[in-house]
Amino acid sequence: MINGKRIAVVLPAYNAEKTLEATVRELPEVVDITILVDDHSSDGTVELARRLGLRLFVHDRNYGYGRNQQTCYREALSAGADVVIMVHPDYQYTPRLVTAMASMVAYDIYDVVLGSRIIGGTALRGGMPFYKYVANRFLTAFENLFLGVKLSEYHTGYRAFSRKVLEELPLLENSDDFVFDNQMLAQCVHFGFGIGEVSCPTKYFEEASSINFRRSVKYGFGVLGTTLQFALQKAGLGQFRIFSAKGRRLEPGYTAYYARGAASGHAG
Predict the structure, then answer these.
(1) What was the pLDDT predicted at 211?
(2) Rounded Cα gap, residues 39 and 46, in angstroms
(3) Tens-digit pLDDT profile for residues 131-149
(4) Domains of the chain (ranges plus CATH)?
């Protein structure tokens, strides 16, 4: 707990057997709940998660990264979390920053905190492919221009959210694919939630998950589309469900249709 608030870490996993244990071992003691959602992995991720005593949910097929996050957040809310931090179990981001990120939310400094790979200037030294770095900088500049905020990057997978954010955003209107991340931040800006950043070193290595060039291009076009939707909605020239206050939100029972609880214990 931090400031009397329950802290949950959620791990959206797909074939993370090689890096999961290292990630979990570095989670700080302030974490009250650790949840792993497996998106129908073909390796030993599920068995390892059981051995580590994680609160585990397993998708009955591969639904995609966005849907995995929906399950993560729904189960964290159901478990009574007040602050939820998404940590990728591929060990690309250091779990040791969880305390700092969670504290900024728990003390009501920000509603959302991002672990930025750009602030410290270490992304390329950490192994980020050059084309991804260039695309990151271009897309971030484009988004800052149209969203009217100034973030160092929108594309990190290391994020902390308050319970209020997860309850109020229409997350069920978002994509099941990787652009879910970007839609969620655009929603946060649209609905007026405060976003902060901390510098986060990153490391790229063979076992770390990373989308290929083709999917990166698809993601990039998705980011451009989301940003233009935001601008049109703000200008009153369009109405999009991802920015609708009446859009579908997370609710109890949603994941029961495609995920089963497989908990063997609790960690954190």
Answers:
(1) 66
(2) 10
(3) 888 989 999 999 999 999 9
(4) 7-247 (3.90.550.10)
Fill in the amino acid letter for 148. Answer: G
Find tokens 């992304």 and name the residue. 123
* Residue 263 confidence (pLDDT): 46
Asked if 117 and 153 count as a contact pair (C-beta separation under 8 A), the reply is yes
The secondary structure of the chain, three-state, reads: CECCECEEEEEEECCCHHHHHHHHHCCCCCCCEEEEEECCCCCCHHHHHHHCCCEEEEECCCCCHHHHHHHHHHHHHHCCCCEEEECCCCCCECHHHHHHHHHHHHCCCCCEEEEECCCCCCCCCCCCCHHHHHHHHHHHHHHHHHHCCCCCCCCCCCEEEEHHHHHHCCHHHCCCCCCHHHHHHHHHHHCCCCEEEEECCECCCCCCCCCCHHHHHHHHHHHHHHHHHHHHHHCCCCCCHHHCCCCCCCCCCHHHHCEEECCCCCCC
Query: Residue 197 is which amino acid?
Result: E
Give the angle subtended at the CA of 151 by the CAs of 89 and 36, to the nearest 5°: 15
Dihedral (CA of 20, 256, 250, 174) sign: positive
* Chain Cα centroid distance, residue 49: 19
